[in-house]
Design brief:
241 residues, 7 helices, alpha/beta, 34% helix
Length: 241
């Protein structure tokens, strides 16, 4: 069974986790599971941790915990918002409300390429595209080539590695968009609170359990929750949607 989990922030106002609970959550994962990258071998004790958007707090607050416990993660990056480097103070970069991060990206509210390369070299973080502009791909007049192919090329050029994963912004897509994404990416992630057997996902997309706003470190691993996620995966496979 593949349990893939979606996170965004720590210590932010929305789409976030309390830093202390989040560290306890990762300690629980370290003690009970093996973290894997997309495409690695799956066992009954494997989880794939995914972080959306590459906000600056990932580098300053989350990455140190990953190193502390030797935990692997996939970081999904919207290529438009990544600066090469910055002189902005860390506290200033993380002091914006969630809804203001994108419009203030020139103040380095996201990880920089310098920081991303450091994380790359750690061996604990791999990267995926989260599109170029972080737009709903179902909206009219979206440049799919820019959001899918070009974002991949930008990230590969700047990070000097292959980008094989794509995370749909807001979890929004249809089968036509998914088929286009599969031309460039082997692993395509969505939102969905379901589990499944491998990285082929369900009908071509990998469902992720929501890991934001945790109340307890083991909340999403309770037997009742896992049964619910497994049942939803079964329903989605049978429904072919």
């Amino acid at each position: 069974m593949l349990i893939s989990i979606m996170y965004h922030h720590v210590n932010s106002d929305r789409c976030s986790n309390d830093l202390n609970i989040f560290e306890e959550h990762l300690k629980y994962i370290k003690a009970n599971f093996k973290t894997i990258f997309p495409g690695e071998e799956i066992t009954q004790k494997s989880v794939c941790l995914t972080f959306d958007d590459a906000y600056a707090d990932f580098y300053f607050l989350i990455f140190p915990i990953l190193k502390k416990y030797n935990i692997k993660a996939l970081l999904a990056i919207p290529s438009k918002y990544i600066l090469e480097d910055t002189n902005e103070l860390a506290e200033n970069r993380m002091n914006f409300e969630h809804n203001d991060l994108f419009k203030n990206y020139e103040k380095a509210t996201f990880c920089t390429y310098k920081e991303l390369k450091e994380m790359r070299d750690s061996g604990l973080v791999v990267f995926g595209s989260h599109s170029h502009s972080h737009v709903n791909l179902l909206e009219n007049d979206v440049d799919l080539d820019l959001e899918l192919r070009v974002s991949k090329e930008i990230l590969e050029k700047n990070l000097e590695l292959s980008i094989d994963s794509f995370v749909f912004p807001f979890g929004k897509y249809n089968q036509k968009i998914l088929q286009e994404a599969k031309k460039y990416y082997k692993y395509n992630f969505r939102i969905g609170n379901a589990t499944h057997k491998d990285f082929n996902g369900i009908n071509g997309a990998i469902y992720r359990v929501d890991g934001d706003d945790l109340k307890t470190p083991d909340e999403i691993f309770k037997a009742k929750k896992l049964l619910k996620y497994k049942f939803k995966g079964l329903v989605k496979r049978l429904g072919k949607k």
